[in-house]
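Need the bound structure for 2'-deoxyguanosine-5'-triphosphate, inputs here:
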Amino acid sequence: MNPPSLDKAAVAKILRELSLLLQLKGENAFKVRAYDTAADRLLGMTQDLGLLVREGRLQELPGIGQGLAEKISELVTTGKLAFHEELKAELPAGLLDILQLPDMGPKKAMALWKELQVCTVADLEKACRDGRVRQLKGFGAKSEAKILEGIAVHQRVHGKRKLLGDVLPTVESLLELLRAVPGVVRVCPAGSVRRRAETVADVDLLASAPQAEPALAALANAPGVAVLIGKGESKCSVRMHAEDLQVDLRVLPDEDFATALHHFTGSKAHHVRLRGIGQDQGYKISEWGVHRADGTKLPIHDEADIYKLLGMQYVPPELREDTGEIEAALEGRLPEDLITLEEVRGLVHSHSTWSDGKNSLEEMARAAQAMGLQYLTVTEHSQAAIYAGGLKEDDLKRQWEEIDRVNEKVPGFRLLKGIEVDILESGALDYRDSVLEKLEVVIASVHVRHGMNEEQMTRRMLSAMDNPFLNIIGHPTGRLIHERDPYPLHMEAVLDRAAERGVVMEVNGKPARLDLKAEHVRLAVQRGVKLVVSADAHKIQDLHHLPFAVATARRGWARRGDVLNTLPADRFIAALKAARQRA
Ligand code: DGT
Ligand code: CA
Ligand code: ZN
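Answer from helper R.:
Posting the output first, comments after.
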């Protein structure tokens, strides 16, 4: 097995950390700056880092000499760097966090450590509050107050929940690593990651094995681990470089795996209700197993056994939020054909170099085909979207010629002729009807003028749906998690109109969008509004946003039949048109 390698961003982060560690050690400024410069170079380069390393061509990058090239190669190929590990062992890890605070340089951080034994931001906060910092040379009451302010900001940033899409690659490489540990029987994520929540605070992993130690050691020594937080007999916690992510692993005997997995998957609210239902029936459900009142332990091999025992339908992890799934499962009303990734036949929202995408149409087509998909809808931006290289009406004709060429060149796959047309301020669409009419798929999205009030924005959306050629509303609320609030919209009114007019809603899988969100998907499905799950791909790698759209649709209880891109291309296009004509 190849050791998991680090990508550009992870390598750059370690180089920056090396610069900080060397500054703390009082290394000369010139030498230190080289690490920061190298980190900038890596982040700015367009070439594939792994390839440069394999071909030994790192030194072709300006500012990267032999020493740095060797260090970068070691990081890329082994996921670790001995020099980095040595430096980290010499200095407390928390000093790096302290260095991130405003007005804090290496000299001050070292003084705090040497004089006051301050090793972490928490130590520093306490020292400031106790008035010990002002007694040090070079610090005063004013700097104490300033440090405390900086700590408050630091905690807001670092306490932030992480996007599922940003943590999942790390989770997946850790799962792969753990599965390969000798003796390990089962491995599974738990907690909010398994429920596919939009954001997660930390990662909970579970494994079963006759002996816990090898799996615990594997996590403690995994590539990308920044800090070993703690390691006991059955549990290990680490913090990863990537995303500052905390990962907790529990390892238990296989006969306890299913009940522990169920407990640690949560949500807490769902689990607490199930315990109550169990109690009513004479069972005690806990992370240690399911017991009868007389103390005998029932054999539980997988989670389905628990639900069966309680006379309920199995509840998939994405639905375990105590938002009605328990009642539905008790009454046999829970949908058993929730949409799955495997059922998606084609993609619906993608950009290429024709507008603001990074790959050509042919590259996008081949990448989608390699994922097992049958079609990809090309939906560039329209003319008003100047900032995103929007296409003029004339450009479209030339693009269709290229689409025809690619479709001939890539057998068994089809690019569909679509557009992501702007919904203008008035609610009109950004092309004439005579152009929209010729397209196979019309997505309409709001990209500008987010500042309208709810009444204005709802009117804008409703009047867009009056256009008979509009098929799909793209990312219907415009939110970007942690970055931009959704624009105000009377969602029920929009969904009612969509149901009436046969307009389809997008479930956009871009990790910061997830738009519609799960609660809105549920409202849509209740009204019989059809959905598409999309990747909103601006480059090949973005095609992997699709699973997040599927997860969001599942969290909104969407079934296979609710999602139109489970259909083959011809039937997909026909279903879009037919829905509007019926209305
Ligand atoms: P997060 O980490 O905030 O993204 O969300 P979760 O759901 O992963 O929460 P976390 O990591 O605190 O706990 C993982 C699971 O462990 C949680 O979903 C259910 C279970 N759990 C944690 N605390 C309790 C508790 O006090 N009672 C019960 N019944 N379960 C708990
Ligand atoms: Ca968690
Ligand atoms: Zn868009």
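Comments: Residues 162-252 form a domain with the Beta Polymerase; domain 2 fold (CATH 3.30.460.10). The longest helix spans residues 141-158.
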